[in-house]
Please model this.
Amino acid sequence: MEQYNVEQTIQDFVAKIEARNPNEPEFLQAVKEVAVTVIPFILSKKEYNGMKLLERMAEPERVIIFRVPWVDDKGEIQVNRGFRIQMNSAIGPYKGGLRFHPTVNLSVLKFLAFEQVFKNSLTTLPMGGGKGGADFDPNGKSDMEIMRFCQAFMTELCKHIGPETDVPAGDIGVGAREIGYLFGQYKKIRNEFTGVLTGKGLAYGGSLIRPEATGFGVVYFAEQMLKTIGQDLKGKVATVSGFGNVAWGVVKKLDQLGAKVVTISGPDGYIYDKDGISGEKIDYLLEFRASGNNRAEDYAKKFPSAEFHAGKRPWEVKCDIAFPCATQNELHLEDAKKLVDNGVICVTEAANMPSTLDAINHFLSNKILFSPGKASNAGGVATSGLEMTQNSIRLNWSSEEVDAKLKEIMVGIHKACRDYGKEEDGYVNYVKGANIAGFVKVAEAMLAQGVV
Ligand code: GLU
Model:
């Protein structure tokens, strides 16, 4: 296939998706990144030609949007909007988290659901892709308000999910506490004790290592990337953004493996801790998150070795390895340029789509080891898959067993990305590798199942 035809096919595809999904910038960004790498592959495979596989994958199987009315502590009625995007069920029940954040809208959840399809396929476990949530802001809400909101949300969601249909989990704003309330309401309404959610507490069917899994998996993936250039994590200076569950797991594992983490960040700015974030400082991250406080500045007040940089992102700090762990589009072209100019060798995405498209292109053209979130943060949902297995066989595995399986899965994802992403000069384009490797399994299943 001539280069011209490949470019034209990509452009035509993107134009169609744009026309069909106006005002959905995040969704378009996620689809474009995949289209650029996967369409040349599709065109090179006779059996995929004309099957509209990517067109079908870019259209959710089902979108559910619902009202979530609830009563706050003052007795006032509040109304939020709830969503569940059931994106693709070709390889298993829909699977993916719930996000409670004021920025939640259809575009954000469709991008997350689209990414989830590829990510879940990469894990090799039988999980389709979905995502959901609400434009509810948990910040400043009392525990009872959170509970009432979760109950109101699940009162509708329970009609659309189930252990063989759709298995939600946590994401930003949804942690163990919220999953507990959601599970309780599902069980009460449906009168079923099933593995309908993952990220559950250990007392009622949760898996060991699930809280740490996303962050640990990210670091296992970074280790694999560094190994390809004969390096490891020992003594490396790391920058991390965010302060939530993913950042916590990343910092904890980096510290265990001998790297020195010097930053974390919140919506107010970042902190630079020249002595490194380890020991009681890692425990403080947990305390800090549980308190519902999101001011990174408070870390600097507590630990005098740290400086606070108001309104700035950590990417200006010189480092060897970088881990964006906060949220989508938190790392822009100018940040990528600073990281590269300062000598970064490896950027491992831990959040979902934290880098903009031009930032990604800058890393790739400078031949930096760069992995997209859908590959490197797949350890979270992979361990959710392991939680589903434990629920199905009604057994609990030890931390060591779960951690070993998680590591094996991350090593496998790295290998799949290498196999499909290796370029002529030996450089591994992990974006291309992840997109194609994730695509193939879903595409094969869709082809086998006919036009449904
Ligand atoms: N929200 C996480 C993710 O982005 C986890 C999803 C899950 O465990 O189902 O992959």
Notes: Residues 95-97, 169, 171, 198, 352, 380-381, 384 surround glutamic acid (CB under 6 Å). The chain has a mean pLDDT of 96.
